[in-house]
Design a protein that fits this description.
Growth Hormone, Chain: A, 18 helices, disordered C terminus, 0% strand
Length: 504
């Protein structure tokens, strides 16, 4: 299917269309099981900790998954270009399935963290392969629409994950939050194996094992510092920093001298890939600005419930999907640059709305600002991925797509660290040592235990801290808008043969 000329009669035949729909369904299942994992497990973690103990290891349940996923994503992308998407997806999904099953049988926090690490290694293949398979299967002018379906799945998982997780821990056993993905994983693997027709030319390939090892070590050490810096002592941070500083330059040297590099740096010579990866990095940071601090503002400064905060944040995910479909239409009518400029302009407008946010305006204003930010990110993210996929051929599309997603993950990690530092420094300057009072403020049931003056002081501190975060978000939105000008000009997708655009 991946090698059918999009301009041919075979591509437009009813049988081919039916096959593409089945492949799309499998990719949507894959997207769902990877996306829902974070939200559903997060909801169940208090119950899991109460059962297993080890509260001091709480954050590593999430960090181990994220670290393994981030470090393995570029490796899977390159292996998919060498050995095919189908095989790599099956390997990754199988790891994910086995580890998910084992997580439900964990007898302590350390075994759970170990299984979550393996689960993350599997997840590193799932989402990039889903996006890459659809890039192979659909013509460039159709890719925006099918990416919209994947974004819709992502948004749905953000909304239903917490609800599903809450229901499971209340009525079933917490292990079910890990097992619920097992039938979905099996179905996605079977459908892709049966319906994805890959014809890989048999040839001897040299696998860059040393490059893969250096990548895992270097990126793993860097990610631990970025994700867990607040919980690590100074000596550990220094050691990890030195490891990353040694492994990553060695990786560059290794990739320059190997026949089949695991990280093909030559792709960075293509301007549209450079811009797309830089844009995805910025989007990753902006995602954390929205996801990590909007609920804090809505609950702490606006005195709303966690459910209301969740709805305000969920609106951003919904509008991300709307932006994806909007980008698909705009790219066909105009160009990549125009579409990315629209996304950047919307994000600047969203930043202005969020900067004007005050506790008195209520959750509706917060939800509107978050929705606009989600809309802009949907426009921009889709443009970057589609433009990158159409700038390379089949043999490099897996690496290019995975690198783009990897940069977004790095952006999320650095964004979390930077925004968190800004928030904490501002809070410390205004209400140092008020952690207990802040905990009371964040819950509607305990907020009444604080005096009126205490509430006012804490609300002002939270509002000012988040306001400073949104100033940085506004600067990032401007950077995104300026990056869009760097996208090479070109005619609209509808005006150029799809196969030629794709380089196939």
């Amino acid at each position: 299917m991946a090698h059918i000329d999009p301009e041919s009669e075979a591509y437009r035949s009813p049988a081919a269309r039916r096959q593409r729909r089945l492949i799309l369904s499998a990719c949507m299942m894959a997207q769902f099981m990877a996306a829902v994992e974070g939200t559903i497990v997060g909801t169940a973690m208090p119950t899991i900790v109460a059962d297993l103990g080890g509260f001091h290891l709480f954050s590593w349940v999430f960090a181990s998954y994220l670290l393994a996923q981030a470090a393995s994503t570029p490796i899977y992308g390159r292996l998919a270009d060498i050995y095919g998407r189908k095989r790599v997806f099956i390997i990754g999904a199988s790891l994910f399935l086995v580890a998910s099953t084992a997580c439900g049988f964990a007898w302590g926090m350390v075994p759970l963290i170990a299984m979550r690490t393996i689960q993350g290694l599997g997840a590193g293949a799932i989402q990039p392969m889903a996006w890459t398979v659809l890039g192979d299967t659909y013509a460039p002018r159709e890719r925006g629409v099918v990416q919209g379906y994947l974004s819709a799945v992502f948004g749905a998982s953000a909304l239903c994950g917490p609800l599903l997780g809450g229901f499971i821990v209340e009525h079933l056993h917490w292990a079910v939050v890990f097992w619920i993905n097992i039938p979905i994983s099996i179905a996605a693997m079977v459908m892709l194996w049966v319906f994805l027709d890959e014809r890989i030319s048999p040839q001897r390939q040299e696998t860059d094992y040393l490059g893969a090892l250096l990548l895992m070590i270097g990126v793993g050490a860097l990610m631990v510092v970025l994700v867990q810096a607040s919980s690590l002592d100074r000596s550990t941070i220094i050691v990890l920093g030195v490891v990353a500083a040694i492994a990553l330059p060695l990786l560059v040297l290794q990739e320059r001298h190997t026949a089949e590099p695991i990280v093909p740096f030559k792709l960075w010579r293509i301007p549209i890939i450079v811009v797309g990866n830089m844009g995805s990095f910025v989007i990753g940071a902006l995602m954390m600005c929205n996801g990590a601090f909007l609920p804090t503002y809505v609950q702490g400064a606006m005195a709303s419930s966690p459910a209301v905060a969740g709805l305000a944040l969920g609106a951003s995910s919904v509008m991300w999907t709307v932006g994806t479909f909007g980008a698909a239409k705009t790219m066909i009518l105009f160009s990549y640059r125009t579409t990315a400029l629209i996304g950047g302009a919307i994000m600047i407008a969203a930043s202005v709305l969020l900067l004007r946010l005050t506790p008195e305006q209520g959750p509706a204003w917060a939800a509107f600002g978050a929705s606009m930010l989600g809309l802009g990110m949907g426009f921009s993210n889709t443009t970057f991925i589609i433009s990158i996929q159409t700038s390379v051929g089949w043999g490099e599309r897996g690496a290019a797509t995975s690198a783009n997603m990897f940069l977004r993950t790095i952006g999320q990690s650095i964004g979390t660290a930077v925004f968190g530092a800004i928030f904490n420094v501002t809070m410390a300057g205004r209400v140092a040592g008020a952690d207990a009072e802040i905990n009371l403020l964040m819950q509607p049931a305990t907020r009444g235990q604080l005096s009126g003056d205490e509430v006012t002081r804490l609300v002002d501190a939270i509002a000012a801290s988040v306001h400073n975060v949104y100033w940085i978000a506004g600067l990032l939105a401007v950077v995104m808008f300026l990056l869009a000008f760097k996208i090479p000009t070109g005619v609209a997708l509808a005006q150029k043969p799809a196969a030629k655009l794709a380089g196939e």
